[in-house]
Design goal:
The chain is an alpha+beta fold. It has 18 helices and eleven strands. β8 and β9 form a beta hairpin. InterPro entries: 6-hairpin_glycosidase_sf, 6hp_glycosidase-like_sf, Glyco_hydro_9, Glyco_hydro_9_Asp/Glu_AS, Glyco_hydro_9_His_AS.
Length: 461
């Protein structure tokens, strides 16, 4: 198992982020009105680029942070010496998210860098000269989704640091409560407020109710405050789910809340447990209510663009629910099929094994793992020469020729990064220009850490 720090690591941002602050508001006709404030200096250093570009999108970044934190909470004993690396990776993100939540009263910063300008460029982070526009949501331009996810990340991380750094943990939890209050009080999707600054890249396609459910679920676990339990039950989130990702959190919240029904024997959370099991029945391949496709090689297939993001996130839920089931000797049925913890564990192992090379192409989709892995990934830092080998600056379009369109392998191996993965027929072309399949992302990697730790422990006994 590769170190958690390597698994999670993608490009980090250093230096001051300087740019115009932009907020938005959608009219009744759906037209976006952007208000550009005077240029200012705001310290939003740190955080992660979500994938192969040079933009900080807080929505997927916060989700990656929540999932890595959840993994550290559930599988701390299984992670061994890698737990400290996981904490380091989490803290790099939460330090940034704290700044975003506290830098300016009444605002939550949710992104840095103009994505439309950035995506016209192919340049190293060290040479980056694109505008560093800073985006925010507020009471007049709400973003319950990104705020709910940010609150979830801070709350989950607060528990990771509770024993090792109590002061930092308290700061995280205090800020999480404030951000969650903002999410609950000022309802609205950040896509409507920010438009083309986040769409089509990370639109909130599922709306914001799932993030309210998700954020409140994490605040409940972190505080045990009945206020959040009452809020959860008032949401009435009965939407059926057969997916889990940075955008749609319904299934994740239900698995998290089912912990209280199973491990704490709290009957009031029984409905969430039943919803979690309905989700599992929609994922399991032999279930009569399954709505999940599988490739001929056995990989679950949800959507064509970066399918492994759904595989790793769903696999996390499968292993975690299996863990809860094993601890309580719980079983359930999908129709007339009995589901045990080993049923779920077997499916999870199949998915992880596929990612690591047990597939028709015998390719590991984790860069640097095994003898055959993607060599031409869609990632600026990996595909462009280092400063040591090419000290001359590469401008905005300086990296396209001869690097981006080259058939050569990337000069820098991004060890541990997991790419978008194969198509629905198990095919993979290893083509840098095919970002749907060749681009790595933090929200693919972060959820995989938990299942790797779970399986490492389960099969090393």
């Amino acid at each position: 198992m590769l170190p958690a720090a390597e698994l999670f690591h993608l490009a980090q941002v250093c230096g001051w982020e300087r740019g115009s602050t932009v907020s938005g508001n959608a009219s009744a006709a759906g037209r976006l009105r952007l208000t550009v404030a005077m240029e200012l200096q705001v310290d939003l250093t740190g955080g992660y680029y979500d994938a192969g570009d040079n933009v900080k999108f807080n929505f997927p970044m916060a989700y990656s942070t929540t999932m890595l934190s959840w993994g550290a909470l559930e599988y701390a004993k299984s992670m061994g010496t890698e737990l400290e690396n996981a904490r380091t990776a989490i803290r790099w993100a939460t330090d940034y998210l704290l700044k975003c939540a506290t830098a300016t009263p009444g605002k939550l910063y949710v992104g840095v860098g103009d994505p439309n300008a950035d995506h016209k460029c192919w340049e190293r982070p060290e040479d980056m000269d694109t505008v560093r526009t800073v985006y925010s949501v507020s009471s007049s331009n709400p973003g319950s989704d990104v705020a709910g996810e940010t609150a979830a990340a801070l709350a989950a991380a607060s528990m990771v640091f509770r024993k090792v750094d109590p002061k930092y943990s308290k700061l995280l939890l205090k800020t999480a409560k404030q951000v969650m209050q903002f999410a609950m009080q000022y309802r609205g999707a950040y896509s409507d407020s920010l438009g083309s600054a986040v769409c089509p890249f990370y639109c909130s396609y599922s709306g914001y109710k799932d993030e309210l459910l998700w954020g409140a679920s994490w605040l409940l676990r972190a505080t045990n405050d009945a206020t959040y339990a009452n809020f959860l039950k008032s949401l009435g989130a009965n939407d059926a789910a057969d997916i889990f990702s940075w955008d749609n959190k319904f299934a994740g919240a239900r698995v998290l809340l089912s912990r209280r029904a199973l491990l704490d024997n709290d009957k009031s959370f029984e409905p969430f447990k039943l919803q979690a099991e309905d989700f599992m029945c929609r994922i399991l391949p032999n279930s009569p209510s399954s709505s999940t496709q599988y490739t001929p090689g056995g990989l679950m297939f949800k959507l064509s663009q970066s399918n492994l993001q759904y595989v790793t996130s769903i696999t996390f839920l499968i292993t975690t629910y299996a863990k809860y089931m094993a601890a309580t000797k719980h079983t359930f049925n999908c129709g007339n099929i009995l589901i045990t913890s080993s049923t779920l564990r077997t499916l999870a192992k199949k998915q992880v094994d596929y990612i690591l090379g047990d597939n028709p192409l015998k390719i590991s989709y984790m860069v640097g793992y095994g003898s055959y892995f993607p060599k031409r990934i869609h990632h600026r830092g990996s595909s462009l020469p280092s400063l040591a080998s090419h000290p001359q600056a590469l401008g905005c379009d300086g990296g396209f020729q001869p690097f981006f369109y080259s058939s050569n392998a990337n000069p820098n191996t991004l060890i541990g990064a997991v790419v978008g993965g194969p198509d629905q027929s198990d095919g993979y072309s290893d083509d840098r220009t095919d970002y749907s399949h060749s681009e790595p992302a933090t929200y693919i990697n972060a959820p995989l850490v938990g299942p790797l730790a779970y399986l490492a422990q389960s099969y090393n006994k």
